[in-house]
Amino acid sequence: MDTVRVTENEFRQAFGSLTEQALHEPVTITKDGRDHVVVVSAEEYARLKRRDRQTGLAADLPEEWIDAVRQAKVPDQFAHLNSELE
């Protein structure tokens, strides 16, 4: 996704139009010649937050969690989904 790049000063001067533009594409605000912050729409921010996931290794889980998974039973109402795995 391409972004518009503006300095902090340019952003202050054109706040209204640049925040409108951020509804359609990211606007990068630079400080001292480097990317500093990016303004995106609330919708895009929410989409990015939904993608924010933490991952880990099964080997790092507590042993009681691993045992609980081993002992878990699929409720009968979902037994028909086993055919999806075959």
Could you please describe the fold and organization of this structure?
This protein has 86 residues and is of the alpha+beta class. The chain has five helices and three strands, in the order βααββααα. The protein has helices at 8-13, 15-22, 42-50, 63-71, 82-85; strands spanning 4-7, 27-31, 34-39. It is elongated, with a radius of gyration of 23 Å.
Oligomer: single chain
Helix/strand/pairing class, anyone? alpha+beta
CATH class: Alpha Beta
Outline the low-pLDDT stretches. Answer: none
What order do the helices and strands follow? EHHEEHHH
- Give the biggest beta sheet: 3 strands, mixed
What is the gyration radius calculated from CA atoms?
23 Å
Strand proportion, as a percent range, falls in 15-25%
Secondary structure tally, helices:
5
Corresponding CATH superfamily: YefM-like domain
Number of strands: 3
CATH topological fold name: YefM-like fold
Average pLDDT level: 90
Strand order of the largest sheet: 1-2-3
Helix content: 40-55%
The shape is: elongated
What's the number of domains?
1
Distance between the termini: 39 Å
